[in-house]
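Archive record:
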Amino acid sequence: MNKKFKKIKKVGLAVLLLCMLFSCRTKKTVVTKNSKETTKQLEKKEEQRPDKGPVEVTTKVYANATEKYIDTYKDIAKSEMQLYHIPASITLAQGILESGSGKGRLSVKANNHFGIKCHDWIGKKIYHDDDKSQECFRKYKDAKYSFRDHSLFLSERKRYAKLFKLKKENYKGWAKGLKAAGYATDRKYPQKLISLIERYKLYKFDKEVLGDSYVKHEVPEHKVIKYTVVKGDTLYSISKRYNVTVKELQNMNSLSDTALYIGQELQVKPSSKK
């Protein structure tokens, strides 16, 4: 009886162990299945969340390289104006002109946007044909350092001191003053700067910096005056007196030649150009 009981006991234990193993395995399978389903459901919810949608990347489109240049460097120019009192319009116009709107060799290879030559420079250098062959120009790690060096170049040299006595709104005065002080050799340099400022309305950045203190600078126009010819007058002598040309006098007064008579009245518009 003991033997039979022991045998039954062993069989019972074996069956119990099998049941336990089967039960555990089944439970584990169910948990895994639920876990996978839960993960999928969460992923689906994440995908459906509106704030997890695809990010739209907006790319700015510019009409030309100059507009792109202005948009890229306008904030730097305004910051330099706040610190060094150089009109942002002048800085941007010079940068556009000197760097070819950022496409010139000096700006691409050396981040030099203002054509500043080495002089007493101890930093990196680049050699480039300018007025002479292979002249030495400054080389910068980043374009922003070129803008800062431009500010320092103008503010620390005595020959540009008169510029800082001008009103910051007076971009025409600054343009002419730069040429007079020897910044550029091109005789049309002032006109080129003024043309860029007015074409792209760069003066608006001066206004943004100055705020309520900004006053649009107007160059006073000389009124047309009447001049009565006296003995000894010639069109040439009158043109010299009022700083105009003989041709201008002829056009204003519908004269076909240079002949004058005493008592003749001429219209003259004096010029401030020297």
